[in-house]
Amino acid sequence: MTPPQSKNFHTANPEAESAIDRSIPEFEAAKISDEDEYFQNHKPPSYLPEIEKEVQEFIEYHRKNTQKRIALVTSGGTTVPLENNTVRFIDNFSAGTRGATSAEYFLENGYAVIFLHREFSLLPYSRHYSHSTNCFLDFMTEKNDKIEINPKFADEMLKVLRKYNDAKESNSLILIPFTTVNQYLYTLKTVSECLHVMSSKALFYLAAAVSDFFIPQSRMPTHKIQSSATKDGELVIRLAQVPKFLSRLVENWAQGAMIISFKLETDNNILIKKATSALDRYHHQLVIGNLLQTRKKEVVFVKPNGDNDWIKLNEDEIKGNVEIESKMIPAVIKVHDEWIQSNSS
Question: Start and end of every DNA/pantothenate metabolism flavoprotein C-terminal domain (predicted)?
Answer without folding.
Answer: 193-296
